[in-house]
Amino acid sequence: MTEETGGRRHGRGNRFGLVLGAVLALALAAPLAVAGGATATPGVASTATTVAAAGPRKVTEDKRPNIVVVMADDMRADDLRFAPNIRRILGQGGVTFENAFSPFPLCCPARASFLTGVYAHNHGVYWHGAPYGYGSFDDSRTIATSLSEAGYRTGFIGKYLNGYGKDASKVTGEPSYLYVPNGWTDWRASFTNPGVPGIHGGTYNYFDSPYNVNGKVDNRYKGQYQTDVLGTFSVRMARRFAASPNPFFMFVSYVAPHHGTPFEHDDPRQRTDVDGTYDGYSTPARPRWVKGMFDKVVKRGAGIAPGSRSGELDVSDKPSFFRARKDFTAGQLAALAEVTRQRAEAIYVVDQQVARLVKVLTKKGEWDDTVLVFTSDNGYFLGEHRQPSGKVRAHEPSLRVPFLVTGPGMRSGQKRYDPISTVDVTATILDIANAAPPLTPDGTSRLRTIRRGDQGWTAPVVTEAVYTVGGQRVAPGFVDGDARDSVGLRTPRYSFTLYDNGEGELYDLRTDPAQMENRFGDPAYAAVQEQLTETWWQYKDCVGAECRTAMDPALRQSVQQTKRTTRGYWAAVSKLYGR
Length: 579
What we know:
The protein is an alpha/beta fold. The chain is 25% helix and 15% strand.
């Protein structure tokens, strides 16, 4: 009996009357590579009307759906082109948000925001190392405690926060490699090697990752590809949870396509770590079967326009950290293409594991009653503005992430243009589960948008970062004790960022979606800059309802305006970069 085809169990009653049937079974013929080189069969739901052979249903009093969140690491919004199953299952068979953002585009702060539902300035995790990394995170109350208290079984799989395993838990003060945070029914987290004798590997070693399994070290996976191991964990957890009548929540957190070891013979040689943003050309490790899959498809870095030999010809209008960058050499352009290919291959493996999980949920009769979310913790630069890699800074490649969702009442195959940020995702999940938030929420539930359609863009996304600029702190609004040196706003039309050294950026995304012309200080945009600066003061330290308050009407956009602006944005970006 395999993980994919184990004996059927009765599923829970379907709240919305959606029934799956035999059509999906016809899509299950393509081979799927799994750990150790074996093959399995992915389940792919291609449209809202696609159905599969599901097990018989059982009726219970609790009609709330299961919720499964799959999160990639460093995956850009346009990387979805390398994930065919996700596009079919959640795109054609669900709802796709065209404006999804990570307000603090860095792994550790972004994940802390998802777990708590608040911006970084309200949870205090600003970086991936001391003093702002995992050791600064109070995870005594998170989305897991909220859902657990609401009657959900909760499971975690994969990468938690950077430094988990090595840093001490803020909650207990003890080493974290044996620590299981509150609220999790089943815990299977990879961890950073704490240097304890007998423990080998680490979270970013794709072929040797240790795991904390419910408080005990499980270090048996050397030689097995991490993404496949996490996929196996997810299908096993789904089978266990399906045996109980209560709804369940699973957070499946992949490291891919984040760079990681072991280094491989086809990796670019230049690897320079600057400011923690990995400004060199680091890549994820991949299993042998997927190598070369996109060599004929990917001919250049994702942020390099066809025929161009430049990330940006003129950066004189940009802040100092961009002006200091030299343009790419031919060798660096080749390295960027290789980074893009290897990331694509790592994403494709995640895509296969998502299909594998959907198949198990279907076999167990749970798919009718499961909300499945796919997203990423942040985006990633791949050549834009001469930035060869990394994230952190509040530019579109770094801020934008994929966000797709499917589930009961959500299988429409439609697009949405309302914004959704990391903290909104948390609020939406808690709304679906009818659960109380762990902290005063900064985000807005987008459940109404998902089910009924767009509502319009009324509040900004607050963007934050640290270690982005140098120099003295001279700008108003950046006070002693505030770790941030960059705070901005992303509105429907404008991207606006202020830095503590007095520099700033203002882009009119309607006319300049690629952010080539910085309008900060431009007399033609003086009135806009003044209005955005006033709004910046209103939101930069917002808490709870303050973060959700509507902006000045001049900065908002209606449903139709947001739709036109977003479609124009993506059309221009696609034309520029040849996608």
